[in-house]
Amino acid sequence: MTAPEAESLRLRPQRARPRRAWRAQAPVVAVVALGGAVGATARYAATLWWPTPPGGFPWATFWTNVLGCAVIGVFMVIITDVWAAHRLVRPFFGTGVLGGFTTFSTYAVDIQRLVDSGHARTGLAYLAATLCAALAAVWLAVTAARRALKWRQR
User: Fold this and answer.
1) Residue 68 annotated as binding site
2) Dihedral sign, CA of 80, 86, 89, 90?
3) Which residues are listed for Na(+) binding in this entry (predicted)?
């Protein structure tokens, strides 16, 4: 092969990934979608159970996000430090269920609605409180889970 032929081959676009790569990812995509449906349904049920009055603090979304962060903290400790989980557990529960349950988009929309309706202070309080509470929840959950594991191993 001559140098120009080799250069021509090098510049040709690469073939698409083999179909095997998609087939290997299909179960992951499926469990994330299934878990997301479960988590989003649970979140929606919470908002129906605890509706937010116009201009009021969105407590259902607030507690959903805080609880979801706490559960993610415990879950990550369990699957990284304790349990050799099946390869689909993390995408199903961590990404799917908890990703569908917690919600950044509703959080952002709630803030925008509060600000647009003249309740900017409530919106800013919600913004800060959710951020602080969610971070505290995940930190406390990870810390508590790790301490419980150490105590259990004694």
Assistant:
1) no
2) positive
3) 99, 102
